[in-house]
Amino acid sequence: MGGPGAGLRLGRLPRVWLRRHGNGYFGRVHRDGLASVIVGPAVIAQNSLRTVAAVAAGKAAGAASRLLGRGGGTTIPGDVARAIDPGINRAISGGLRRGCVVVTGTNGKTTTAGLITAICRQAGISVVSNSSGANLAFGVTAALLADCTLSGVPVSEMGVFEVDELAFPGVVAELEPSCAVVLNFLRDQLDRSGELNSTAAAVGRGISRLGKQTRLVVNCDDPSVVALVPEGVAAVTFGVDARSVMSASLPRVADARFCPRCQRRMEFSGVVLAHCGDYHCPGCGFVRPQAQVSAALVDADVDQMDVTLGDGLHLQCQIGGVYNVYNVLAAVAACRQLGVPDDVIATALHDFVPVFGRQEQFLLDGKQFRFFLAKNPTGMDEVFRTTIESGIYHNYLLALNDGIADGRDVSWIWDVDFERLASSAPDLVVVSGSRAMDLALRLKYAGIRSGTVLVEPDPEKAMAVSCQRAQDDRIAVIPTYTAMLSLRQVVERRGAVGRYWAAPAAKGVPLPGNTPDAAVTAAPGEQPIPGGKVHG
Amino acid sequence: MARMEATARPLRIGHLYPDLMNIYGDLGNVIALRNRAAWRNIPVEVVELGEGSWDAREVDIFFIGGGQDLDQSRMYLDLLGKRSQLVSAVTSGAAILAVCGGYQLLGHAYSDAHGKVLEGIGLIDGTTTAGEGRWIGNVVVEAGEALGLGPVPLAGFENHGGNTWLGSGVAPLGRVLVGGGNNGVDGTEGAVQGNVIGTYLHGSFLPRNPRVADWLLAAGLRHRDKAWIGPLADLDDTVELAAQRSAVAIAMAEKGRKAVARA
Is-catalytic flag, B108? Predict the structure, then answer.
């Protein structure tokens, strides 16, 4: 592997130190022995001394890291604390009075977790969440650490965590969530996560570890999600019933074409996106379950949507795109399970502001840049669907990086329907990122009008040239994850946005160092990765 | 030229199992073949050859990609049933590009981690064995003599667990400069046997390596019309070659960094 960068090396130090010196000390304390630690006036925690030590070390590491300007405030504390007490997530989250919600699936985790958090806060519930997107176990730890007292008692009442699919079984076992939301399984970063089937299987293992009291909330439009619901478990379902947003046939990148039970080819009477829609198996009768939280009417534009649920609840949001309808439905379904009243949900959704890189908008040099993070073929297809159908975007800035957090293999752009973008005859497409030339090549083969494409790998210059050459004042920015971080930093440097958090953390993977550039340049192993699955 | 083309049937590209063997964005290979024919005013059509019956006789160039385990096991028996059709198509001069899982299936056999042997189509004199780990990363290959292109670089991305070992009846596509290639041991990547090309390179492979695309088109045109002697009209490949150079530079830089890291 590219090797642990600065962030991990910092984290490793205490682990080594502990092995050499710590065990002798902590060894005198029974591992699960209870210690009462008094902090401030009279807060008494029933946490083990090991947990308390882990909390202190983690908090100190986070503070030190921020002081040193190393960033990584979202990864280092978790790493340090987990080195001392691997059971820290269980210990701290056990103190969350209202339990926690976990959200997993390929696309929409951050937005859905953001929506649930916003709704709960609207309901007066205090929430701790890994909103910075560090969605592995240590990212959850870091969020819990930032929220708890020195004795490891959460200040917030509830946790809302987005969780990487492969990390899901482990995190679920640690957190024992009261509610688990599964969104979708789409092809994404195959060089890191392997096959789609193994990703779904990992989430399936997590589901089998859920306690009886846990409410499982699933997207019933995705057959590969429904297939994970165990016999006898009454999952809460959400899905889209509005025919107006369905097409008649599966797109190129649909994966779950076959019945998960009997492997026959399924029939789709309507497709919302990818392989999500209204399906049934002509062989064994496997059929899309009815959606309990159903979008009966959908009017989704680029920056807002009106959704009427099957039970009549009307929702208005300032996030657009059909793909976000699923995130809204997931949040509504989860929050109803938590007992939040419909009027509170509707108010919170109405006031929700798009999160980090997902439909965020910035004004720069008189141009409105709207960011649409797109990390995989379905994500990018849906963004193009949104921008093209809106009719207001004719200028694009596409940015493709091949960092670890983006996926090193950029072959997936050939699965994206760039032909649709070419047919819409945009005025300008600036291509940027470490793989800008691959985008230029893809656009050429999509049949884009000559003279439309400008290649500018550097993010700062790409923003500048977009400003200069755009023929109207709206620019759709469609970046991969680390490309989004780089472009957003440009916006930050120009003063168009406040700093979001101390330093960007990777989605799903521990990034070496704290700069997006580090993510771009960190090389994956050229050697075979042991234990990999054999196929292909 | 246009008048001559009007009398012939279109150049036909057969996309094998497009909805099963499509996991690594290999669709770009079909897009490249189709566009590079169309840009030369050569009538071209793509036919999808999935499960069930189809006729391979009027297909000039076949393409097969890689699939997920489940999908690959689904099409495997169907493909075996088409062996005689494919063999006679190749014997009559049709060309095939097979990438990753498709490449493995065109060999004699694949033996998995449990020692189970899956018979292949046998159009490539090679066998594949399950490896200890996976080869995942950027690849640079220097084209070998088999394609007659000279020692040009080829760029792609590999992601495979199987190691392929070539027999004496086949030439490698090229020599590995960066990456694992066929097996990480003998320095070879891919295979060329007559008009059949196998490779582990994604990217997609043909858009970034247009000379190989044109090699396949020429073979396909010869199959369609035995009297065709070419040459293919030149295309402006500025963007293609710039993308290839960029991919080669990224892969070479990684190799350099890793060498430093090991030192």
Answer: no
- 3-class secondary structure, B230: coil
Considering only A31-45, A66-80, A111-125, which range has the smallest mean pLDDT? Answer: A31-45
What's the CA gap between A337 and A354, in Å, rounded?
24
Tokens 């036909």 belong to residue? B12
Catalytic residue among B15, B160, B202, B223: B202
Residue A531 has pLDDT above 70, yes or no: no
Write down the pLDDT at residue A46: 61
Asked if pLDDT for residue B261 goes beyond 70, the answer is no
Decide: A511 and A405 in contact? Cβ < 8 Å.
yes
Indicate yes or no: CB of A440 within 8 angstroms of CB of B239: yes
Closest CA to B198 of B17, B29, B11: B29
pLDDT in tens, A16-36: 333 333 332 232 233 333 333
% chain B with pLDDT above 70:
95
Cβ–Cβ contact A409 with B under 8 A? yes
d(CA A53, CA A23): 12
Q: Enumerate the β-bridge partners of residue A219.
A: A238
- Residue B192 maps to which CATH number? 3.40.50.880
Q: CA-CA distance, A445 to A522, in Å (whole number)?
A: 30
Cβ(B65)–Cβ(B102) below 8 Å: yes
**B202 labelled catalytic:** yes
For chain A, the average pLDDT equals 83
Count the Cβ atoms, other than its own, within 10 Å of residue A492: 14
| B192 bridge partner residues | B171, B197
Closest CA to B98 of B85, B86, B113, B88: B86
Report the C-alpha gap between A418 and A422 in whole angstroms: 6
- C-beta of residue B22 within 8 angstroms of C-beta of residue B65: yes
Give the tens place of pLDDT for each residue, A444-483: 999 999 899 999 999 999 999 999 999 999 999 999 999 9
Is residue A221 within 8 Å of residue A276, measured between CB atoms?
A: yes
What is the bridge-based pairing of β-strands A358-364 and B126-143? unpaired
For residue B114, the tally of other CB atoms under 10 A from its CB is 7
How many independent structural domains does chain B possess? 1
Q: How far apart are CA A26 and CA A56, in angstroms?
A: 14
For chain B, how many residues are written? 263
Q: Which residues of A touch B250 (CB under 8 A)?
A: 402, 434-435
Domains and CATH numbers, chain A: 11-81 (no CATH), 89-351 (3.40.1190.10), 358-504 (3.90.190.20)
Q: Which of B15, B23, B236 to mutate to test the interface with A (most CBs of A within 10 A)?
A: B23
Higher pLDDT, A8 or A107: A107
Domain enclosing residue B98, as ranges: 2-262
Distances (CA, A) of A208 to A129, A167, A287, A509, B169: 24, 14, 22, 24, 51
Q: Which residues of A touch B202 (CB under 8 A)?
A: 409, 411
